[in-house]
Design a protein that fits this description.
Low-confidence stretches: 16-32, 162-173, 500-507
Number of strands: 40
Shape: globular
Strand content: over 45%
Structural class: mainly beta
Mean pLDDT: 78
Radius of gyration: 30 Å
Distance between the termini: 84 Å
Largest sheet: 5 strands, antiparallel
Helix content: under 10%
């Protein structure tokens, strides 16, 4: 009998492993091929409030799947057209990830890789890489809302957060993080503009009291954002100019021009307007916006004398139609440098049409009652959104935010008619820190919105009031209002401190970690674990008799320098 050497045994084992590994890889590849990404991924510039309360520009990214959800996805990002992608987050599909670690005017590229636990045999499996999507945050061109004169004073109406006076506003995403506006003035139309003021974003108007009565003045503005972390200013483009004669006549207000657009039915829109005395409409244009970044000119025309309306037919289901008109004063004015010009002003009005996602979906907790006997909390919440036109109504769905099951949505409210932009709903939560996901769906007949956006609603914050900090003998004493009458039996006290590369802990500022100072049934505690000087923020979280801890609002955090 031939003796088998140890070398032969090792060789045989290596051969077996050689064949087994491809089999395992093949099994993985079967799962790999089964995973299908959706062709539609959501990415848009936005604003996000970070833990210290600062609003920062951000890029909102969501990846969608077609057939099944995975356990989680890894999101990768690259700055610019070249270079390496780096993993920046671990997230769920269908959930928005807000990337705040970005710079203004830089283009960023993103993709995602899915992972899921298939079986004990194969363990964690890696799926296909998604397509690469890109976006950037750049300050949009702001526009003056209105300009009026009284005596020698000229008042500029600055862009606002909300929609009023037929637009001429800055985009909502910009408005949430902008620092302010820079105002420029000139005596001529094309050049010679000099900075005359810098105003904060909250300021609604600016009055120029240095104008000389009888002179023509031209004004332009640009928005700016100051990045505290970079200590750098970013500016938007200069606006179009608005002009007026100090002490002269005022231009018609938007409501007097009354440019309007309304959907007649699913395929037609009616544009109406009024013509103030002494003015003419030079042109009116209609644009469509598909909600994915594409604007398209649908129609452009010059109104005839006495015409007051126009019906545009053959429209499709898109997110938005916008009518834009140029109103002109035919009188010719001559400046001191010999330049002649005519007054003109743009007016805009938009309508949301079709089965697109309801825009501006937001929420506000009206009340929250903790039921200590049933270990639950009942919350009443007000939803608001921008109404859509030409639909039969809305449906509101709710599900647990921790669930990945797309069939777990529960219909809780149906609203008939399109003339709605708010609804009050009631939800019951049964777990600590539990959030609910809410989805608003528009419908017309059997058709519903093609891409359904959802938001997460957090528990109402129950925080300790009148938090006081005091330094004494190398320690910090923390006191707060007793909450035992509200069913609170214990408090968890955390200290936010120390820079860390890890993700911030719940309510802590960026790159800070929460350390448990202690748990107490009293309304006071002493932190005697401090070893170095610095600024510390303390968080007091009430815990109810049933063991459920309340949600926390960072606005009630208390800081002290040690």
């Amino acid at each position: 009998m031939k003796k088998i050497s140890s070398i032969s045994i090792v060789s045989t084992l290596l051969m077996i492993l050689f064949f087994l590994i491809p089999m395992s890889a093949k099994a993985q590849n079967m799962e790999y091929e089964q995973f299908q990404w959706s062709e539609y991924h959501y990415i848009t510039p936005c604003a996000k409030q970070i833990a210290n309360g600062e609003n920062r520009p951000a890029i909102c990214v969501s990846f969608y799947t077609q057939e099944r959800d995975c356990d989680y996805i890894e999101i990768y990002r690259r700055e610019g057209k070249s270079g390496n992608f780096k993993k920046i987050a671990k997230a769920k599909t269908y959930e928005a990830y807000y990337d705040t670690a970005i710079k203004v005017n830089k283009t960023y590229y993103y993709y995602a890789i899915p992972y899921w636990n298939a079986t004990e045999e194969h363990g964690l499996l890696k799926g296909k890489k998604s397509q690469v999507i890109q976006s950037q945050v750049s300050l949009q061109r702001a526009a003056l809302v209105d300009i009026t004169t009284s005596g020698n004073k000229i008042t500029l109406k600055l862009p606002a957060y909300d929609i009023e006076d037929n637009a001429r506003m800055i985009p909502m995403n910009d408005a949430q993080y902008l620092t302010g506006f820079v105002i420029y003035r000139s005596g001529t139309w094309q050049n010679g503009y000099k900075k005359i003021a810098t105003v904060p974003i909250e300021q609604k108007t600016y009055t120029d009291a240095t104008a000389k009565k009888g002179n023509f003045y031209f004004y332009r503005i640009k928005s700016y954002y100051y990045d505290k972390s970079e200590k750098k200013y970013y500016y938007g483009e200069l606006s179009e100019s608005m002009q007026i004669q100090s002490g002269g006549k005022n231009y018609p207000k938007a409501e007097k021009a009354a440019l309007n657009i309304q959907m007649v039915n699913s395929t037609a829109a009616k544009i109406t307007w009024k013509t103030p005395k002494g003015f003419t409409w030079k042109e009116i244009s209609i644009y469509s916006f598909d909600g994915k970044g594409t604007n398209k000119l649908v129609k452009k025309f010059t109104p005839k004398k006495g015409q007051t309306s126009y019906t545009l037919k053959g429209l499709k289901d898109v997110c938005q139609y916008t009518a834009e008109g140029l109103l002109q004063d035919p009188t010719s004015y001559r400046l001191t440098d010999g330049t002649s010009f005519s007054h003109n002003r743009w007016y805009r009005e938009s309508v949301y049409n079709g089965l697109c996602p309801a825009l501006g979906l937001n929420w506000q907790i009206l009340s929250c009652t903790y039921d200590h006997d049933s270990y639950s909390a009942e919350r009443t919440c007000k939803l608001t959104w921008n109404p859509l036109e030409n639909i039969d109504g809305y449906r509101i769905y709710v599900r647990d935010s921790h669930s990945d099951d797309e069939t777990a949505w529960k219909l809780i409210k149906t609203i008939k008619g399109s003339d709605h932009s708010a609804a009050t709903i009631t939800m019951r939560s049964t777990s600590e820190y539990s959030e609910e996901k809410v989805k608003l769906e528009a419908y017309r007949g059997k058709k519903t919105t093609d891409v359904q956006k959802s938001i997460s609603i957090a528990p109402a914050a129950v925080t300790a009031d009148q938090v006081k900090l005091a330094k004494k003998n190398g320690q910090i004493q923390i006191r707060w209002t007793d909450m035992s009458a509200q069913g609170v039996s214990m408090y968890r006290v955390y200290r936010c401190s120390y820079t860390s590369d890890s993700m911030p802990s719940f309510a802590c500022p960026t790159k800070q970690v929460a350390y448990l100072v202690g748990e107490t049934s009293e309304n006071t505690i002493v932190d005697d674990q401090l070893t170095k000087k610095g600024s510390y923020t303390y968080v007091i979280i009430p815990v109810f008799k049933n063991g459920i801890a309340a949600a926390y609002d960072m606005k009630n955090g208390k800081s002290i320098k040690f």
